[in-house]
Amino acid sequence: MQKITMSEALQCTSPQPVSIVCSPMPGGMVNLATVAWWTYLESDPAMIGFSMWKESFTYALLQGGGSLALCIPGEVIADETLKCGTVSGRDVSKAIEYNIELYPAKVPFPVHSRVSFICTIEKMVEVGDCGFFICNIEEIYFNEEERQIFAWGSSQNLAPLTCNMNQE
Ligand SMILES: Cc1cc2nc3c(=O)[nH]c(=O)nc-3n(C[C@H](O)[C@H](O)[C@H](O)COP(=O)(O)O)c2cc1C
Q1: Which 8-state DSSP code applies to residue 54?
Q2: What is the pLDDT of residue 154?
Q3: Region at 98 (left for phi over 0; alpha for psi -120 to 50; beta for the rest)
Q4: Domains of the chain, residue spans
Q5: Could you tell me if the CB of 57 is within 6 A of ligand 1?
Q6: Quick check: 35 pLDDT over 70?
Q7: Which CATH fold topology does 13-159 show?
Q8: What does the mean pLDDT of the chain come to?
Q9: pTM (2 decimals)?
């Protein structure tokens, strides 16, 4: 046993299942932000949560509550998912700029998603420099053709599991 830091712990527990949080913007488009700090919270009622940096555009868009989609992107859009996690929607309309096709649900999400949760925000809890959004799930979409990607190491490498018995 050895003592380690939080960032080392994050690397030691990699890979993390990566998601894209899709937040409605005024005008009908959605902003796309990559989020690895998401979790299941409850199965009945179905609930998930995720932690979002307060300086992000996503935090600003969702601060007042409302709906969102949290999708698990497929391998086909691994590069685009990384870009959605390095650029802010304040500067770039990511779905348009990165050519990410959207599925026309109540809250649109990338077509190349394995799973997508359509949610409404129950409440937000401030956690240091982040807000933790607790969400009720309204609908769940699934496409078995898409292969799930994970964030490896320091989160700059997004790729599927190499040995993945459930998703072969
Ligand atoms: C693999 C990966 C995982 C990330 N996970 C999170 C996360 O869990 N929470 C967070 O606040 N930011 C996370 N980020 C950073 C945000 O995606 C980044 O700040 C993004 O630019 C926010 O976009 P927005 O300003 O359009 O909301 C992650 C980035 C990457 C590449």
Answers
A1: T
A2: 81
A3: alpha
A4: 13-159
A5: yes
A6: yes
A7: Pnp Oxidase; Chain A (2.30.110)
A8: 95
A9: 0.96
